[in-house]
From TrEMBL:
GO terms for biological process: photoreactive repair. One of its GO terms (molecular function) is deoxyribodipyrimidine photo-lyase activity. It holds the Pfam family DNA_photolyase. Gene3D superfamilies: 1.25.40.80, DNA Cyclobutane Dipyrimidine Photolyase, subunit A, domain 3, HUPs. The keyword Transcription regulation does not apply. Keywords: DNA damage, DNA repair, DNA-binding, FAD, Flavoprotein, Lyase. Belongs to the DNA photolyase class-2 family. Residues 40-168 form the Photolyase/cryptochrome alpha/beta domain. SUPFAM superfamilies: Cryptochrome/photolyase FAD-binding domain, Cryptochrome/photolyase, N-terminal domain. Its EC number is 4.1.99.3. Its cofactor is (6R)-5,10-methylene-5,6,7,8-tetrahydrofolate; FAD. This is Deoxyribodipyrimidine photo-lyase. It comes from Marispirochaeta aestuarii.
């Protein structure tokens, strides 16, 4: 410990529990523990929220460090064998970490990248920390990490809900039947939570480098080094990185500003048309925490106040950003089977099982499906869009999933293949939104329809419906021009 750290540690104060609760209200959870008598620093575990703006965890960490008169260090644990992730996802992630490292350095907060599983790396890093402050994640693996770390720490862990508008358990303590039931509950609460974090206070004890780092990571690396040679660090190459979709907070705000100035005006009446591609393009940035949903919601609302012509588009976008996205989080929180066929409601399972023996119009090999080489040009285009851009038009995602019900006799196998394809190729795969969207294809958050071959009582979709509603030649033309 150098002289500066000794002086800081000797003057450290107690954890500002009441102040944090007053500021962050029901966004905050503080796990019990005792800070070491001579704590050397506060540790910010960065996991979900890879940004500075509207980051409640970062704000709480700065307040805690200043109150306790301690420096603040940030740590991100990179897991090369993260389930379902590959070089496409890690490229986006590492670009965001490079961006974050620069932004945090300006605040006097060094960021350490540790190649370690969080349940091992964070307790090791926190041995001389007064406390650990972290964001909140909602997938099963994210929740598991936080449970295990809380159980292994002797000092307090402070968790902030920074990647939702309304904290999920404040809206509902059970799995919601559909968007309508959650919408009513969210509507009563949105105004209470739609507030920016505000200007971050200056750190009292800034650190400008990793010199005299008060803990020893398991395997520290610079994000740039990992990005340049991902295979050397054990990262799989199942899907190619995408230069057209760079990660990071700065890029997230560029995309948001472009959306406000362009597609928002027609979002309400054209977002479902695959040929027009009126999308927000924000999903990857929300998934990786480069953009706060609070920031996005406030920006869209401000634009619609300034220009009433954007009111309908803003309402449609907020429905997707808040109601549908937080319905997906509710689903993952309360349904342990959210990423498996067991998530399909009983009525739908029974109906699909009863039609397993129906004659299929076509049956394709797995390799044909992955390559997008079927007899359906619309399905092929949707799959090509996923392979080449890391995303798929929202309306086509529904059709993409429904077609597999028709082609694959075992609907459970179809379900698992959709999860695999989405997790492997979509930049925002391995996400509550993706799991919920696939569950919807098979009847979750939906109702029974009149029974018919292949689909049973599941809502049907077909090529005739696409051609009746949209100029599908525009979609095929757009996809035909795509390149990585």
């Amino acid at each position: 410990m150098n002289a500066a750290d000794k002086a800081v540690a000797s003057s450290a104060k107690s954890l500002p529990t009441e102040e944090l609760k007053r500021i962050f209200g029901s966004r905050i959870r503080i796990s019990p523990g005792t800070a070491p008598q001579k704590s050397r620093f506060v540790l910010l575990w960065v996991q979900q929220a890879l940004r500075v703006r509207d980051n409640h965890a970062l704000a709480a960490a700065i307040i805690t460090a200043n109150t306790m008169n301690l420096p603040l260090y940030a740590c991100f644990c990179l897991v090369p064998d993260y389930p379902g992730a590959n070089s496409r996802h890690f490229t986006f992630l590492l670009q965001g970490l490079i961006d974050l490292e620069t932004s945090l350095a300006k605040l006097g907060i060094p960021l350490i990248l540790d190649l370690a599983h969080p349940e091992e790396g964070i307790p090791r890093a926190a041995k001389e920390a007064a406390c650990v402050v972290c964001d909140t994640g909602y997938t099963a693996v994210q929740r598991k990490w936080r449970r295990e770390i809380v159980n292994s720490l002797s000092r307090p862990m402070i968790q902030l809900e920074s990647d939702v508008v309304v904290p999920p358990m404040q809206a509902s303590d059970k799995e919601e039947y559909a968007a309508a039931t959650l919408r009513r509950k969210l509507t009563r609460l949105i105004d209470l939570y739609l507030a920016p974090v505000g200007t971050l206070p200056d750190l009292k004890n800034p650190r400008k480098s990793l010199k005299d780092l008060p803990f020893r990571p398991l395997h520290s690396e610079k994000p740039e080094s990992v990005l340049k040679n991902m295979t050397a660090f054990g990262i799989q190459e199942a899907a190619a990185p995408l230069a057209s979709v760079p990660g990071g907070e700065r890029e997230a705000w560029k995309r948001l500003e472009n959306f406000l100035a362009g597609n928002l005006s027609h979002y309400h009446d054209s977002r479902n048309d695959p040929g027009l591609n009126i999308q927000s393009e924000l999903s990857p940035y929300l998934h990786f925490g480069n953009l706060s949903p609070v920031s996005a919601a406030l920006a869209v609302m401000a634009s619609s106040r300034d220009d009433p012509r954007l009111t309908e588009g803003a309402a449609a976008f907020l429905e997707q950003l808040i109601v549908r996205r937080e319905l997906a989080i509710n689903f993952c929180l309360h349904n342990p089977a959210c990423d498996s066929p067991d998530a399909v409601p009983a009525w739908a399972q029974e109906s699909l099982d009863s039609h397993a023996g129906d004659e299929r119009p076509e049956v394709y090999a797995r390799e044909q499906l992955i390559a997008g080489e079927t007899g359906d040009p619309f399905w092929n285009a949707a799959q090509k869009e996923l392979l080449l851009t890391g995303k798929m038009h929202g309306y086509m995602r529904m059709y993409w999933g429904k077609r597999l019900i028709q082609w694959m006799p075992d609907w459970r196998e179809a379900y698992r293949l959709l999860i695999e394809l989405n997790d492997t190729y979509s930049i925002d795969g391995r996400d509550c939104n993706g799991y919920t969207g696939i569950a919807w294809v098979f009847g979750r958050h939906d109702r029974p329809f009149p029974e018919r071959p292949l689909f049973g009582k599941i809502r049907p979709m077909g090529a005739k419906g696409l051609k009746r509603k949209f100029e599908m030649d525009l979609y095929l033309e757009r996809i035909s021009k795509l390149q990585i």
